[in-house]
Amino acid sequence: MPNGHRVQETTARDVAAAMSAIDRRRFLPRNQRPYARDDRPLPIGHGQTNSQPRTVADTLRLLQVPRGARVLDVGSGSGWTTALLAHLVGPGGSVVGVEIDPDLAEWGASNLASYPMSWARIEVAEPGLLGRPTMGGYDRILVSAAAQVLPQELVDQVAIGGRLVIPVQHVLVLVEQHLTGTVTSRHGTYSFVPLIGS
Fold first, then answer.
1. What are all long-range contacts of 59-62, with beta carbons under 8 Å and residues at least 24 apart?
2. How many angstroms from the chain centroid is the CA of residue 42?
3. In angstroms, how far is the first alpha carbon of the chain from the final one?
4. What does the domain layout of the chain look like in residue ranges?
5. How far apart are CA 46 and CA 122, in angstroms?
6. What contacts 153, CB < 8 A, 6 or more positions away?
7. Residue 181: left (phi > 0), alpha (psi -120 to 50), or beta?
8. pLDDT, tens digit, 9 for 90 and up, residues 17-67
9. Are the C-beta atoms of 60 and 10 separated by less than 8 Å?
10. Of 143, 142, 1, the residue nearest 69 (C-alpha)
11. What is the DSSP letter of 142?
12. DSSP letters along 13-71, please?
């Protein structure tokens, strides 16, 4: 995070503002757009969904995304969560979304491009690699698909002082990376598509 200073973390109001600013309709197939305001997951093809808004809000509040943070969005799908994260970090931060399905990644990137947020991008995930390792790690990592076990390779990509939110067997798990070690906590049960490669 910028200059190593502690910055204000996301509040429930920040998350609500982001979800108001980023129109879910833009991240849905045309035949699903009439249902954009429904609080339920909606199909986007390729066996994937655009997640239930209440679930997305819960994960973002738990992630506590600061302004200026470096964020990784694993399983970016339609690009909606990547756009929400980009709104939260602002132009001083950076967000990279990774998506295993090349067609979905391309579509998600085009959806994301409908907003002027040059600090966010979506890329095709590398086969056999979870996440996108980078020097120094990420301040926040959001995973929108359920792993069978907590993937150590994603934990290793969290910077000191950072957070990872990931469903593990549909239980939402928060991982906090401290100088003294890793702390995990469980935060309710949700339904997610499977995380490929976990």
1. 59/142, 59/144, 59/165, 59/172, 60/10, 60/15, 60/18, 60/84, 60/85, 60/88, 60/142, 61/10, 61/12, 61/15, 62/163, 62/165, 62/172, 62/174, 62/187
2. 17
3. 28
4. 2-189
5. 17
6. 129, 130, 131
7. left
8. 999 999 999 999 999 999 999 999 999 988 888 999 999 999 999 999 999
9. yes
10. 1
11. E
12. HHHHHHHHHS-GGGGS-GGGGGGTTSSS-EEEETTEEEPPHHHHHHHHHHHTPPTT-EE
Q: How far apart are CA 118 and CA 139, in angstroms?
A: 19
Quick one: pLDDT band at residue 109, thresholds 50, 70, 90?
very high
Cut 0.85: pTM above it: yes
- State the CATH class of domain 2-189: alpha beta
User: Helix 80-89 vs helix 12-21: angle between axes, to the nearest 10 degrees?
Assistant: 120
Query: What's at 113, amino acid-wise?
Result: A
Selection from 191, 131, 187, 118 nearest residue 157 by Cα: 131
Six-digit token string for 185:
């906590």
Instruction: Tell me which DSSP letter residue 145 carries.
Output: S
Distance CA 156, CA 6 (A): 22
The answer to whether residue 118 is catalytic is no
**pLDDT digits over 78-95, tens only?**
999 999 999 999 999 999
Write out the two tokens for 45.
């093809």
Q: Which of 51, 76, 94, 144 is catalytic?
A: 51
